[in-house]
């Protein structure tokens, strides 16, 4: 049975240290000192850690967009950091 759109993908886990919860959000970011403007890296977040991980990236000016994991293509949604 396929997961509902609002359910996190079962094989994708939150990027927060020590968290093993399913990811529900993809935080797309780049470091403008290191990456070209179109380059995006992805951190995954569960509902509990979305705000904290987003704040960490936003304070540094790295956060570009936040998307639901279900909206991601499978290869793009994998943790890249």
Main beta sheet: 3 strands, antiparallel
Tell me the fraction of residues in β-strands, as a range.
Answer: 15-25%
Percent in helix: 10-25%
Shape: globular
- The low-confidence runs, each spanning 5 or more residues with pLDDT under 50, are 75-79
End-to-end Cα distance, whole Å, is: 30 Å
- How much is the radius of gyration in Å? 12 Å
Query: Largest beta sheet: what is the strand line-up?
Result: 2-1-3
SSE class: alpha+beta
Question: H/E element string?
Answer: EEHE
Average pLDDT over all residues:
83
Number of strands: 3
Number of helices: 1
Describe the structure.
- This protein has 81 residues and is an alpha+beta fold.
- It has 1 helix and 3 strands, in the order ββαβ.
- The protein is globular, with a radius of gyration of 12 Å.
Supply the key terms.
single chain, 81 residues, 3-stranded antiparallel beta sheet, 12% helix
Please outline what is shown here.
With 81 residues, the protein is an alpha+beta fold.
Question: Secondary structure elements and their pairing?
Answer:
Blueprint (H helix, E strand, L loop, with lengths): L24 E5 L11 E5 L4 H10 L3 E6 L13
Antiparallel strand pairs: 1-2, 1-3
